[in-house]
Amino acid sequence: MTTTAAQTRAALIESQPLEAVGQRSGLFRGTLGSFADIWAHRELLGLLVRRELKARYKDSSLGVVWSLFRPLAQLLIYFFAIGQILGAARGTPDFAIFVFIGLTMWGLFAEIVQSSTTSILANAGLVKKVYLPREIFPLSSIGGALFNFLVQLVVLTLAIIFLSSSPFDWSAQVLLAPLAVVTLVVFSTAIGLFLSAVNVYLRDVQHIVEIALVILFWASPVVYSYTYLHKLLHGNWLEQLYLANPVTTAILGMQRALWAAGDTSTGPMAQVWPPGLGLRLVITLAISLVLLWLAQRAFARLQGNFAQEL
User: Fold this and answer.
1) Distance (Å, rounded) from C-alpha 219 to C-alpha 245?
2) Which segments within 10-156 are labelled E, that is strand?
3) pLDDT tens digits, residue range 77-117?
């Protein structure tokens, strides 16, 4: 009876057609196959995002309110240390709103890169037990970062409405805000996706990322205005190199869109903006999309040995 049942089961398995499992090779064909695979597992991606958010605020009385405390604490520190003690606020109108815009954008970038880098290691159990598109782990980290960003964006919007010294101008500059956010998300996703794969093989990457983010923070106009840098460098090649940083371009785009006081064109507090900022954002977005494509193909090449390395 047992032998007959086993033979019957083997015959049924043998009669089933073979199905390809995993991602296809090739630059373009493989990319389309990967996107289709991720889309087929979109419900699992949503579950991973919800799991991450629940784990983050588990047994917490204040819940999502905690996502505001860190940027608000940073805002107070930089406002008093950089703005009041070092005097940056005297040359920057609505300095608190200016800093909070920068911290909100920077927090989105840093959280995506950091959480994505360690996402494969954090889900090693699933990676070793079952097949699924491994890209969903970095993408689930991005979902959590975007949730925190939206919470902070609500507070930022309220601060602009009630605390800004200049009336908000619903001009075409406002369109720079969504363009800046999309550009930053695409670029940080590309970086995080690539680093998440490399970190499986070289665990020092996650520590290098922490140091790099500290350096990059001060290489971006978060707590100081671009105007100071322009007056110091006068548009030379160092300034152009500074503007080549996609994070810098995205933060400047967000500041130009939402920082109404930054439109001051006369007096000692007049602000300077890079020429063609909208075009810079479009070019940066195009480059970021190419980087995202290359990062995904590199991820697809490296993921084959994830289970063995973990």
Assistant:
1) 9
2) none
3) 777 777 777 666 677 778 888 888 998 999 999 999 999 99
Six-digit token string for 17 = 């057609």
Q: Where do we find the tokens 């970021």?
A: 288
Please name the residues in contact with 205: beta carbons below 8 A apart, sequence gap of 6 or more: 117, 195, 198, 199
Counting every residue written for the chain, the total comes to 310
Any idea where the domains of the chain sit in the sequence?
28-56+63-309
Query: Residue 101 corresponds to which amino acid?
Result: I
Provide CB contacts within 8 A for 121, sequence distance 6+.
199, 200, 203, 206, 310
Q: Tell me the whole-structure pTM to 2 decimals.
A: 0.84
Non-local (6+) Cβ contacts of 236 within 8 A are: none
Please answer whether residues 152 and 68 qualify as being in contact, where contact means their C-beta atoms are separated by less than 8 angstroms.
yes
272 vs 256: CA distance, rounded Å:
10
